[in-house]
Hints:
The chain has 150 residues and is α/β, with parallel strands linked by helices. It is 24% helix and 27% strand. The chain has a seven-stranded mixed sheet with strand order 1-7-6-2-5-4-3, with helices on one face. Helix 1 crosses helix 2. The radius of gyration is 14 Å and the shape is globular.
Amino acid sequence: MATKEFYTYSAQETISLGEVVGELLHSGDVVAFRGGLGAGKTTFTHGLAVGLGLRDDVSSPTFAIVNEYSEPRKTPLYHFDMYRIADADELESIGFYDYLDSDAVLAIEWSENIANELPASTTVISFEVMGESFRKITIIGDERFDNIGY
């Protein structure tokens, strides 16, 4: 696994980086987000959706736990918020393990809460707030992310 660091200076730049990453994702990929409230996770996910060719408006899944975005002939995106999930039993009750077996990309906010349940091949993206609109975004993933031209 390689580590790449990026800096974005606006929400639009965070979306653009997410779009570049989204274009590199494949069916079955799991992307685990780490970072506090307001760090840019949902904004980045908007870019992932665009990169996957999805046109849905992305919103935080805080109250729904999962938002599903799909279109015909496109890889679906399942966007999770694990903030309130405490253990594997709760993951089972929301059907999380079935999602892992799907042909979708999974984007998981608050992935720290379920770290032991994620596949070894999970791409980890950390968000660090450096200023009002300034973010440090670190991607730990396979060779697909080595040459991101951002």
